[in-house]
Every structure is written in C-alpha cells, then in structure tokens.
Amino acid sequence: MLAQSKIAGKISDVKDQVKLSDATVMLLTAKDSILTGFTRSDENGLFSLSKPDTGSYLLIVSYPKYGDYYTSISKDKDYSKLTVGLTKTATLLEEVIVTGRIPITIKGDTTEYDAGSFKVEKNAKVEDLLKVLPGITVDASGKITAQGKTVKKVLVDGEEFFGDDPTLVTRNIRSDMVDKVQVYEKKSEQAERTGVDDGQREQTINVKLKEGAKNGMFGKALLGGGTSDYYMGQLMLNKFKGSQKISVYGLFGNNGTTSMNWQDAQKYGGDSGVSYGDDGSMSWTNFTDPFSGQGVIGIPRAINSGVNFSDKFNKDKHNININYKYGRLSSDGDDETISTGLINNKSNKSVDTENDQHRANLKYDLNFDSLNTLTIRGGASRKNLWSDNRREAYQFTQNMDTTVAEKTHETIKNTINELNFSTYFTHKFKKKGRSFTLDGQVRRTEMIGDGYLFSEVKNSLAKKDTAGYTPIDSTDQRKERNNKNEVLGASVSYTEPLSKVWNLVVGTGIESSNNSSRVESFNKGVDGKYNNLDSRFSNNYDFDRRSSRYKLAIVHTTDKFRFTVANNFNNDRLKQYNYYSQEGLSRSYFTYNPNVSAGYSFTKTKGLWLNYTGKNQLPSMTQIQPILDNSDQINRYLGNENLKPSFINSLNINYNSFRILTGSYVYVGGNISLDKNPITQNIDTVQGFNIYTWNNVSGKTNTSVNIWSGYHFKLSKKLGLSNSPQFSLNMSDNYNLFNQQLNKVNTTNFNFTYNFKRDTKTGLNFDLNFSPQYRLMKSSLERNTNSNGFVFGSNGSVEYFIGKTFKVYTNYSYTYEAGTKAFDQKFEQFLLHPGVSKKFLKNESLMLDFMINDVLDQNKGFSRSASTSIFTQRRYDTIRRYYMLKLSWDFTKMF
Fold it and tell me: What residue stretches are annotated with the Outer membrane protein beta-barrel domain (predicted)?
C-alpha cells in the first residue's frame, strides 16, 4: 500500500542512458488538466511525488531539447518504479503531441503562467488575473509583488505600454485577451545588448496576448455621481491590430481616484508605512501620489489623460513607441502643523493650488542588422504650478512661551520645462561576447517663476522701541526666479570575452553639469512699484561640475553563479561662483567607487544575491549655495560653500525561494549603510529663529541597518485560503549639531505584517492585512521627549458573491497610534467603504455599483513624522463621507 501511494521512477536518455537531472515532472487531472503535483528529478535522474487516492491523471515529463513523455495514471495500478526514457528532438521521427493545458511552466529564469488555467470574473482585467496567480500579490493601489519582489515594469508582448506606468496595463487590458503571463528579472539594456550581466535587474511581468486578441477594439467607460458634489469618470479605448497598438485614456474626478500609476507615488515621495530619509529621518505618513488627488490638502479636482502609439515596421527592423500625457490638479483647504522636541512651533495654513502638466515620450529602436542596433529615447514636459498660501506661525520656548509670531501671504507662479534625449548604439563582433557600446545623453531643466510675499514678524526677544512695544518687521516684496540645470554626457564601453564564463569590461565617460540659480527680491518703492533690490534675500549663483569616469570590471557568468567586480574611478571638478559677492571657489576630487555583486541560483526558483557599493557622496547645489529665503522667517535655511564629500559603504543581501507547486515563496533580506563624515542639516536657534545649515560631522559615521523577511503559502487549497506573515526591523544612528552641540539620534522600528486571504470568486472572499509596530527614537540632547510608542494598522477588503452577477463588499482601513511623550494624545481612525454591485447583459459587460466612502465619517487627515529629534504632527482637510452611484460598461469588438 505504501509503494502504491507514490509515483516514482528514473529519467534518462533513451539512447545513451545518461541520467537527466532537473527534468520537469508534472501530474495533471485528466479531466480538466489542472496541475496537482510537481517536482524535478535529482542528480541521479530520480523523482518521486504523491499519488492521489482517487481519480484519473496524466503524468508529463519534459526536458530541454528532448521530446515530452506522458502517460495516464489510474487509481488501481502501481507506478512506484517507472522507467522514463526521453528522446532528443533532433532524432525524433514524428512529432510529439501533448494534450491538455499546463498551468505553470519554468523556462530558464522565466516563470510562465497559462492564463486560461486560472479562474477570474467575467470581464476582469489583468490586475484581477494577477491576483489569482500563485506567488503574485497586488495591493489596493495596484502595486505588484512577484516572488517577494516589487514589479517595476509590466510589458505587453515584450514592449512598453504608456512608458513606465504598470497600472495602465493591469487596469486597462482584459484578462480574457491574455494567453500567457511571464515573470522574470529583466536585465539592464547594456546587459541585454552586450550579453554581460552587470547585476542590474528589475522584476518584470510580460503579458502575452492571444493572437486573436491582437485585432480588435476594447475599452471601458465609467461615470459616477455622488452626494456633496463628488463625481468621477473614466474612458479607456484600445485598438490593437497586429503589432500596432493605439490606446487612449481619460480620468477625471474629485474623490482621489484618478491615479493610474503607483510608481508616481514613490517618485513624489508618497508611500504608506514607515520610511527613512538619508539623514536618518523617520516618517510614517500615509500619503499617496498627490497628482491623483490623494494626500493633498482639501478636496482635489483632477484630470489624468493620455494617448499611446506603438508599431513595428519592415520585418521588425523599426520599432517605435510614442505617448503623450496631460494632467491637472487643483485643491484648497486648511492645514495645521505642530512640531515639538528640540524645536517647538505651530503653524496654521490655508492653501489654494493649481498644477497642470504636459509630458511626451518617444522610444525608437533601429536594428540595422544582427550585429548593430540603435535605441533613441526622448522626452519633454511642461509643468505650470500656482499657489496662494496664507500662514500664521508661532515659535515657542521649552516652557511654551511665544517668542516669534509670523503672518504670511505668498503667491507663487512657476513654469518648469524639462527636456531629455539619449541614444544608445551597440556593435557586436562576430566573436561571441565581444561588443562595443556608445551612449550619449542630454538633460535640461529650467524653472521660471515669480510671485509676491507679504509678511509681518513680531519677535518678543528683539529690543523694544522707546514706547516699550515689540517692533514688527514687515515685508512687501515681488520675487523673480530662474533656475537651470543642464547635463551633457557620453560614455563608451568595450567587452572582451576571456573565456566562456569570464568577460573583461573597460569603459570611460565624461559628464558636464551646469547649474544656475537666480532669485531676486524687490521691495516696494515710494512710487508704489517693486523696483528696490533687496540683496539680503536675493542671489545669483552658478555651480558647475565636470566629471571623468573610468571603469574596469571583471565578470564571471554561469547558469548558477554570477560574479562582478567593478572598479570605478571618478575625477570631479567643482566650480561655484557668486555674482553678488564676486567670489568663486574651485575644488577637485579624485575618488574610487568600488562595486562587488554576486548571485548564486541553487535551483531555477531559489537564489541568493549580494551587492556591495562604495560611493563618494558629493554635495549638491542646494546644500552649498548661500541662499537666505524669507518666505518662512521662523525657519531659515543656509547653504555651506565649504562642504566636503562623504563616503557611503552599502551592503545588500537578498535570498528568495519560490515553489511552483504550492505557489509559496520565502524571502529574506538585509541592508547596512555606513556614511562616514556625513553631510547633515544642523540647527541653531538665534533670537527665536531657527537657522538650518548643512555641515560635515567630521569623525562620525551615520549607520542604518534594515532587515526584512516574509513567507507566503496556502493554508487550504480546497477553501482557497492563503496567508503571508512578514517582519521587518529598521535601526539607525545619526548625528547632527544643535546649537553647536553634537546630537546623536537612535531610531528603531519593529514591524510585523500578516496577510490573510481567500480568493475564489464565489461565496465569501476577503483580503485582510494586520500590521502591529513598535517604534523607538532616542536623542542624546532631548532625553525627556521621544516618540516611543505602539502603532497598529489594518486594511483590506471583504466581498460576498450572491450568484455570479451580484456582489456585496466593503473596503476598510484602521489606524491606531498610542500617545507618546512628544504627543500625549492617542490617534485612532477607522475608515469603512461599503458597497453593492450588480452586472447586467448576457456578457455581464454592464455594471451598476453603489458605494459609501467613509461611512463612519472618521477621515481626519492626519500624519506624524520624526526627524533629528523634531517631532511633527499634521492635521489637514481631506475627503470625508459621501455616497456615490457608478455605472460602467466594458466593450469589445474584434475585427
């Protein structure tokens, strides 16, 4: 009985009797070809897997360059001593036909899912398909994690779709158009061209469409209206014809739902949970992409639109991809900010903002022949930013006595123009591995703006007038701004194969960076015109950098082991000039920036990766330029022309293990960063004002340590239950100066997250996240005030299907922050968003959805953050409770 409970045997070459290791062995149900068992043969060609007690099955064995072997498995026979002989495809006399669908296959370093083997709702999008694929998770913002790694790119048939916006693919393309979903680590463009792995990889998903789906039109239209004048709308239209793809989308609304790109949230600095800055600052805000309308002050009014065109010509010799985007966001509201710790102040601000942006991108690939390729990229954008801010701010002593009071009214109008162009040429020689690459780039950014500043400052520490009253310092100015940044760069690289596994890479490059900043403040004259230059709050400054780079690298690459040692030498010449003081300063630095990376693949789905980088961090223009800004007179910021580079050592280690059969994965990682002689922002309090200045903290090292791990696995395949416990630990020691005294800040954050999920598209489904945290912050100068405390967060969704077309659901988020010494009041908030939806028509393409946003009316607009012993709390106007009815239509027409 024990022998009959297993399917086991030996796999070998039928002709030469060579043992075949790592052969793929799959057990499928004979009825519907669902994968029920999976394994690989060991080094002796042996394999073993469990045999189900009931039912009929199909056993399939495959190996590269061999024909597939398959046999039926019945319940009453012994299959414990199978002999499997495979025949090379080159010697096969007839075609081997394998019937049935294989849900998951491994092809080299690529995991491929058969989309038709996984169940989703009718008219579902790619995002819904990804949610049911083993080893892939998608959060509420559309952020995708595959095998424990964040997905940076989502391609369609191997090509970019709307540039680098993954969510435009996952929320725009229908799942029934998809044939395969491939997950792999995409190499850098240089590595793909030269064949030399440089260790730079991005977790990537490629959506392969069915041939029949490449000729038709499809899209979605949505319109929603609600109480309190809330509204939203979407229109997405796609036309695919062979290699040609044309897509148009437009979204508008005032309920924060116009974002289509989760990566923008990272670019704008928005992210949920705890984040750490380069200076050791810690933040646990919950802001997301402000261009979507989420995280801004007040009620956003947003438009997000775009068009994309891509095609291939002349037998794929020419490949072009063009996209254009337009967005607009306006909002107004009130904000209250309180800071405590080393500095105590409070501000109340009323904000009215408008922001619109045009952006166009181009990518053109030209394949001259099999040895010569050229890639051209270009982009241009224009941003128009306008704001009208009114603010009242107060500075306090440690005893909470007011020292400075300020009232400010400022209007700003800025236009930012950006242009970038790059070209990449590669020539491969006839000798395999030998190649020559040449690239060049041009980037230009210019900001032109003006505005008006009205302020009144009352300082109780200042000398009183003869009548005994504290004088008021008034400002009435017009400001003009012009900032420019121009970068020109070029590099060449040559790769020479030393053997089949060793490659030598040599390269050199140059870069010129020209920065200029001009800010002019004009006081109002007796004639009522703003024509008197105030040199204290004006500057005209240049900061230029010339860099020469030299690279010598040795690369070792096999199927299992990758190893790179790169020696990078930089010769940087810095030149700065202040036109007002007629003073200049020139400096040069010759630095060594090493890089060592190594990766070992134990199996096709288990690997270890290590990377070390040593980098000289040069001061930036904003850190060195001596600008005094009077728009916030309580907090004044100064540069330092005498800054020196700091040196950062950084070590990263990552381990991933993914099991295809169970869809489970384990990941463990860590990072340690040491910043020697760090450039930090130091604070001095002078007569009630805070003066922020950049300085090197000589002889000290800022330290940051991060450790993370996670495990995703199924609890019950029958019930569709899965879960994922995750843990992270973040610690840092950072230095800065406060009133010329050394301040050491220690931060520690413990975070545990547990995800519990059921996804069957029938009955009850849920996706729940629970995240308890405990954080510590200790300052050597501020021992009595800290932000030590317990934090708990939970978010998720619950839905119940009544039949196939009716669904009741709710989304929620819960936040709890215990009181601390910095802020003794606890914060608690529970946001609940219930709704019901019903699908109509025979193809279920029409859906009516009624939802309530924040049914408990608890959304308060709240955040807390900490940086260098200054603890900040914000409260701001935001989206509150409303009711909305939405009608959406998914349409398809195939040619």
Answer: 427-768
